[in-house]
Amino acid sequence: MRPTAKDLAEAAGVSLATVDRVLNDRPHVSKKAIRSVNEAIERIGFIRNPAAVSLARNKSYRFRFVFPKSGDLYLRELLERVEESKGALKGDLIDIDYIQIPVDDAHGVAKYLAGIDGHEVDGVALMAPESPQVRDAVARLLERNIKVVQFLSGQEKLPEADFVGVDNFAAGATAGKLIGRLTCRTPGKVMVVAETMQSMDSIQRRHGFDTIMNEQFPHLTPLPSIETHADERRGKEVIARVLGNQANIAAVYVLSSEARMPLTAIGANIDLTNLAVVVHERTPFTEEALRDDRVDAVIAQDPGHAVRSAIRIMRARTDAREPLAAQERIRIEILLRENL
Amino acid sequence: MRPTAKDLAEAAGVSLATVDRVLNDRPHVSKKAIRSVNEAIERIGFIRNPAAVSLARNKSYRFRFVFPKSGDLYLRELLERVEESKGALKGDLIDIDYIQIPVDDAHGVAKYLAGIDGHEVDGVALMAPESPQVRDAVARLLERNIKVVQFLSGQEKLPEADFVGVDNFAAGATAGKLIGRLTCRTPGKVMVVAETMQSMDSIQRRHGFDTIMNEQFPHLTPLPSIETHADERRGKEVIARVLGNQANIAAVYVLSSEARMPLTAIGANIDLTNLAVVVHERTPFTEEALRDDRVDAVIAQDPGHAVRSAIRIMRARTDAREPLAAQERIRIEILLRENL
DNA sequence: CTTGAATTGAGGTGCGCACGTCAATATGAC
DNA sequence: GTCATATTGACGTGCGCACCTCAATTCAAG
């Protein structure tokens, strides 16, 4: 049988009450008692039964995802994965909910975070671009002992908060490598399209992309980033203009997570099947585009994994445990038509 | 507050004892009672508290991994991941152990499986090639209510047992696509190396590979599979012989999970950096080979994920629950130097 | 209506731990 | 030595459920 707290008390030569005090960091314990209990823990290999702990504490976890208000297919995918996890974890005393707010309004985000009630929420997974205001708000959440996970965005400057997502420099570099190899040494220009270049993610991807291009593929000339600002009309216009001015386009890289609009706009002007096209994130649209060869490769981060990972991290932090790093690392996936 | 079994009894208009009988499939309950309890479950949204269940049952899970006796780096990686999970799950009443046996001896494997004591093991994750004898042994394990997961091997003919691993046809196809695209329409031959072509995995990978080659890359000529039989001397010999006979080799595909020996043997004869080289599985060796350009791409299935997935599935089956399919699907990962 | 079987309810116990109260001791300052 | 304070132990309760026993009730067949 596994040793219980009672066995531990016996082994440590103290009472159950003292064991309890040590295990739960309660006051009124001598250093000596702490030592002898910890020693006994090692000696007899005591492990608290998590089920009993959970039952006795009878505590539930409440976690909240904060998403952008606007988005397209990838955002929808994320929301579905959140719903899925919500359902799967309802039994385990874990309540998940989410809210969508205009994340580009840093002031609004900060205000929302400041207004979160610590009695209603144990952890927040935040998908919003970086800004000093948001950073401050996150720091204050942490001070109030509300755990924060930076979700698929903003991995700088806040080492106190966990981050779930990929290394965007590497993601951009991977895109660059794929485009470089897929174009087969044929000289040409590479069109780069982004929603905005304001965000850290975009900057890092672009940086990784350019680094690889410069180092390994001198035959290609990356063009300046086209910004669509998630505006259909504006995006189409600027893309058409660039396509009109530029001849000899060999490849396209869409570095934002919503590829549908940019790619549709480009496809309306030229034939994508002859170009090396790399986009981000798996959605119904990018899957279909992979299948009919408009897209050659998709760089993806599994949204289901990301959501589950964020939840596990918030749970671990709430329990004052370390998350299992290996499991929480999100892979930069490369999807071809063959490995969908 | 969450409804408890007591609330459920009240809502269903029955006693706690009857609720218990229904919830745990005990005998001596009328269909009417079953109906009214189930109805009440839906109505009030009752969910059993898993912590309380676990505590009351006070049952532990014992799962065993059965691995090949011989192997190289990938096998070592798997064993480490098993140890890791073992440590991480010790707290949750889950005991993991593993054994290594000569899996090519179908009779021996069957005998080992037959000898497993149902009182000591709740589930077995089996990494062994298919054979009628093994299939029978697995079927008998299942009859004795020991859950079986086919681990990274043999996904045919046994739909009663779960399978953890990738679609090997798709994995081979992915390798083919990569080699096809990386060779850039330069005609040439493709060397294909396997440990053995006896196993289902190898056959499926080769089949997927050939399919893509035929359909999409007529400029390449895949050679017959070279079998090393995991024998250093023999492997080197046969590889050297093929390299001597064949000129104009444009690419190499190593389809077994241990790439070190074949690749080292090939590298001793020709310069790999000029070829398109695709291998399977991430190991220290393949990582290093990616970094110094001897290998262009690695097709991988995350061993940590695979191990955790097998455990979750055995656990779910032991509890008579359905595993969460989405989470248990192992991805065919493509690794380049940039997304390691 | 009787009888036997099937069904139901009442109630108790324990799983391992958290958390609280109160009395008993130990420790230190003076 | 005395007193205040710090530490310790004994003990009880409850978390939500599983599992067991025994008596009470219902039901169907004859």
Would you write up a description of this structure?
The structure is a homodimer of 340-residue chains. With 340 residues, the first copy, chain A, is of the alpha/beta class. Chain A has 14 helices and eleven strands. Chain A has helices at 5-12, 16-23, 31-44, 50-57, 73-89, 106-114, 132-143, 168-182, 200-216, 232-245, 260-269, 284-291, 303-318, 325-328, and strands at residues 61-68, 94-101, 123-126, 147-151, 162-164, 188-194, 220-227, 249-254, 276-280, 297-300, 333-335. In chain A, the strands form two sheets. In chain A, strands 7-6-8-9-10-11 form a six-stranded mixed β-sheet, with helices on both faces. Chain A has a five-stranded parallel β-sheet with strand order 2-1-3-4-5, with helices on both faces. In chain A, strand 8 (249-254), helix 11 and strand 9 form a beta-alpha-beta unit. In chain A, helix 1 crosses helix 2 (16-23). Chain A is elongated. The first copy, chain A, binds a DNA duplex (30 and 30 nucleotides) through helix 2 and helix 4.
